[in-house]
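Chapter review: from sequence to fold.
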Amino acid sequence: MSRKAAKPVRPWTEEPGNPWDRRQGEPILWFNRFERYFRMVGPERSYLGAYKLLLKEKGREGPKKPTRAPNAWCVTADLWNWRERADAWDKEQLRQLRQEEERGRKRARDARLAILSGLKVKLSQAILNLDPTTAGMREVVALTKLVLVEERRELGQDVTVAKNLNIDIGSLTDEQLERLAAGEDIISVLADTRSS
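The token string follows.
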């Protein structure tokens, strides 16, 4: 088998598949070397680094460490676009990482919304059972505002209205309390009162 690399059949950008896959006509020997190269990370990635890795794997490390990759490596790497193909690998890895981070953020957001939904149920029960003469009213009002602000924040809605909301539970009608208990947004319930 010849150690000299054949020339690419077509530019790497025009070949099907991923750029880091073996190209048509690319000798397996050089593709295996390319794999060592593109899987290296950061400043470790170099032709010399891949060459040293190959020597180490084959147990051919001697006392004299090479200071540069053999010329055949450099010529072949340039011929088969190792740098560009490795850059494509890096971009794909970064894309996958960002995608996974986004999925993690969505899962965390969904969990926060589920907690807020559970708190709304508890608040609904507390509002229905609330005796306006007891001291627990302040806590219900504070928690209602907190849940409303956090829910609006999670949904990307304006929170200033919710933060500045003054709720007097004692002045709410039974119908308004029932609407709140049913899960209707308190801003909507109060807006109906103000427009009447």
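Two observations follow directly from the output. The radius of gyration is 32 Å. The chain has a mean pLDDT of 80.
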